[in-house]
TrEMBL record:
Pfam family, one: TGFb_propeptide
GO MF assignments: cytokine activity; growth factor activity; hormone activity
Assembly information from the UniProt record: Homodimeric or heterodimeric through association with alpha and beta subunits, linked by one or more disulfide bonds. Inhibins are heterodimers of one alpha and one beta subunit. Activins are homo- or heterodimers of beta subunits only.
Superkingdom as given in the UniProt entry: Eukaryota
An example Gene Ontology CC term for this record: extracellular space
Name this protein carries in UniProt: Inhibin beta B chain
Function: Inhibins and activins inhibit and activate, respectively, the secretion of follitropin by the pituitary gland. Inhibins/activins are involved in regulating a number of diverse functions such as hypothalamic and pituitary hormone secretion, gonadal hormone secretion, germ cell development and maturation, erythroid differentiation, insulin secretion, nerve cell survival, embryonic axial development or bone growth, depending on their subunit composition. Inhibins appear to oppose the functions of activins.
Cross-referenced Gene3D superfamilies: 2.60.120.970, Cystine-knot cytokines (2.10.90.10)
TM helices/strands, residue ranges: none
PROSITE patterns (alphabetical): TGF_BETA_1, TGF_BETA_2
Localization of this protein: Secreted
UniProt similarity note: Belongs to the TGF-beta family.
Signal sequence extent: 1-26
Native source organism of the sequence: Acipenser ruthenus (Sterlet sturgeon)
Length: 373
């Protein structure tokens, strides 16, 4: 999806929320104790429903997804757990769920680039005729928006006491349009006396594929004397299936940060209110691997005139919604809004539309501080 499509999607999200808020407010008495932006307070159930819809639309927009992925063929658990352990994305619990590293969000809280780690499993439906080829599918929405920082192919080689040589050389090529047109990406020597995972750096080849806008990476393996030892297809141990890990980044803009108060029963001024969004409760647990949910939080409270004008508000997603409320004259009393002034990213591991595993820190998802416009 291009940048213009994403911007259009965000505008549509804002307009949808304008209509939703307006419809809600029209059912509320005009002088019902305004606490935020000079507008009547929403009922608790309606307020939470609105915030959850904001969270869902915001996640899809920032992941450049038109809709939530439809997971029709789940990745086998053995394959998934092997890839997650190799990725070091976090700790795999005994029940098979994943606990993300708690320091990932803190490490990237002030980063200017949104980083991704994509795990793509070999597509067994597109195997090469010579049984030495591997095809990896990537989502159409991605492609040219990403800079490849690092890309690594993981292959498992079975042990063999009958190999002609204990030490062999394996080569990985980027397949061209014709059988003879191939580009050598990586080669390495290793011992095949014991079964082991081997890694092959292929950053340059994957970058070329993404630059062309293609969504398939086709690789060919050559290993003299060890060709039959490489696990390339769907046969054998399910946890030994080949996969590709790509670390990529895309530029995102961040706003200026400012601290604020947390809400409690004794605070009526602009403050931060905690709210937890459970991915299981909203039916997204099938495509979001981790976390189980997150503290979205939101801003509420009185905004006095001398509190207005906090820096960095114009870039706020919530502020954009309420600015459109003002522009459309939905409520004439709208003056100063209590909105987010500081956010941090949400670390997430999920399946994309091509059933690849993607790890990323979605910027500006968790509200940490509030202020007045």
């Amino acid at each position: 999806m291009g940048s213009s499509d994403v911007q259009s999607g965000v505008r549509c999200v804002s307009l949808m929320l304008v209509v939703l808020v307006a419809a809600t407010l029209s059912q509320t008495p005009g002088d019902a104790g305004c606490l935020t932006c000079g507008m009547p307070a929403l009922e608790k159930g309606t307020e939470e429903q609105l915030l959850i819809e904001i969270a869902k639309l915001q996640i899809l927009s920032k992941l450049h997804l038109k809709e939530r992925p439809n997971i029709t063929h789940p990745v086998p658990r053995a394959v998934l757990l092997t890839a997650l352990r190799k990725l070091h994305a976090g700790r795999v619990r005994q029940d098979g769920t994943l606990e993300l590293n708690s320091n990932l969000e803190r490490q990237n809280a002030r980063a200017k680039d949104q980083g991704y780690e994509i795990v793509s499993f070999a597509d067994t439906d597109h195997r090469d005729a010579a049984k030495s080829g591997l095809t990896f599918q990537f989502s159409k929405e991605r492609g040219m928006n990403f800079q490849i920082l690092q890309s690594t192919l993981w292959l498992y080689f079975k042990s063999s006491s009958e190999a002609p040589k204990e030490r062999v050389t394996a080569k990985v090529f980027l397949a061209g349009p014709h059988q003879s047109n191939r580009t050598l990406l990586s080669q390495k020597q290793f011992d095949v006396k014991w079964g082991s995972w081997q890694t092959f750096p292929i950053t340059r080849g994957v970058q070329n594929i993404f630059d062309r806008g293609d969504k398939q990476v086709k690789l060919v393996l050559e290993c003299e004397g060890c060709q039959d030892l490489a696990v390339l297809g769907s046969l054998g141990n399910a946890s030994h299936q080949p996969f590709l890990v790509a670390q990529v980044r895309v530029r995102e803009e961040h706003s200026i940060h400012k601290r604020s108060l947390d809400c409690d029963t004794n605070i009526s001024l602009c403050c931060k209110k905690d709210i937890y969004v459970s991915f299981r409760d909203i039916g997204w647990q099938d495509w979001i691997i981790a976390p189980d949910g997150y503290h979205m939080n939101y801003c509420m409270g009185l905004c006095r005139e001398h509190f207005a004008g906090a820096p960095g508000i114009a870039a706020s997603f919530h502020a954009a919604v309420f600015n459109q409320l003002k522009a459309n004259g939905i409520h004439s009393a709208v003056s100063s809004c209590c909105v987010p002034t500081q956010r941090r990213p949400l670390s997430m591991l999920y399946f994309d539309a091509s059933h690849n595993i993607v790890k990323t820190d979605i910027p500006d998802m968790i509200v940490e501080a509030c202020g007045c416009t």
